[in-house]
Amino acid sequence: MVDENSPVYIGTNKPVIRPNKQISKGDGYNSFLVTIENHCGTHTDAPRHFLPDGKIISDYHLDELIFTNPLILDCPKFPGELIEIKDISTVDLEGIDCLFFHTGFGKCRKDHKKTYLAQNPGISPDTIYWLRENFKSIKCIGIDCISISSYQNEELGKKAHLNAFMKQDDLGDPLILIEDMNLGIISKEDVLEEVIVLPWQIRGIDSAPCIVLGKIK
Fold first, then answer.
1. DSSP letter, residue 111
2. How far apart are CA 73 and CA 110, in angstroms?
3. Among residues 122, 131, 120, 126, which one has the least CA distance to residue 175?
4. Cα(165)–Cα(169) distance, rounded to whole angstroms?
5. Domain containing 88 — which CATH number?
6. Is 59 within the bounds of a domain?
7. In the beta sheet, which residues pair with residue 178?
8. I need a labelling partner for 214 at 20 to 30 A (CA). Which of 28, 43, 135, 194 fits?
């Protein structure tokens, strides 16, 4: 859910929601004007976010956004820490097509926004590359942080995105990234059976806010 108090990545604009037509003011119907950055709230990052020739989010067909073997991986992290290869190297990821990292940092989103925005964990570039090189079935990665980029290290964050999106013969398909997820609503006992990602269908933009639907066994 997005409102005018939703946390947004530092340096970007907060959502603005204002009435356009109002029955209370004599109009025949209600409507609103909504101004929002396309990387606000739970959102997808598609390859065009960092690569001029990458796919935009509306290029994806629905069947590319349905994942039938997803996994939520518990990976607790302190502020500013990165998810490294050693954190996941012993996990069986064979056949997984959608991997969500539950760092636990999402608990800061509501009541500790400054911490959530400025001290978030992230995913190291090496981890992204390793996943794409060794588990080509993975098409989507998500995280319960404002970004896969740790705000404290912009260059590593940029490289992590580039490693997710670049085309290279020895790697799997470019990834779709999902950021600012609420993974705390799913208990450790729940097993995800299917995930459907539904981004806003706005032609021409690199990425978009989205709804992520999960089916639990």
1. H
2. 22
3. 131
4. 13
5. 3.50.30.50
6. yes
7. 44, 142
8. 135
- How many domains does the structure of the chain reveal? 1
Give pTM, 2 decimals: 0.95
Q: Is residue 32 part of a domain?
A: no
| Structural domain boundaries, residue 206 | 39-216
CA 118: distance to chain centroid?
17
Q: Is residue 17 part of a domain?
A: no
Residue 180: name the closest of 156, 137, 212, 155 by CA: 212
Residue listed under structure tokens 């790697």:
171
pLDDT per residue over 151-199, tens digit each? 988 899 999 999 999 999 999 999 999 999 999 998 888 889 999 999 9
Give tens-digit pLDDT for 61-112: 999 999 999 999 999 999 999 999 999 999 999 999 999 999 999 999 988 9
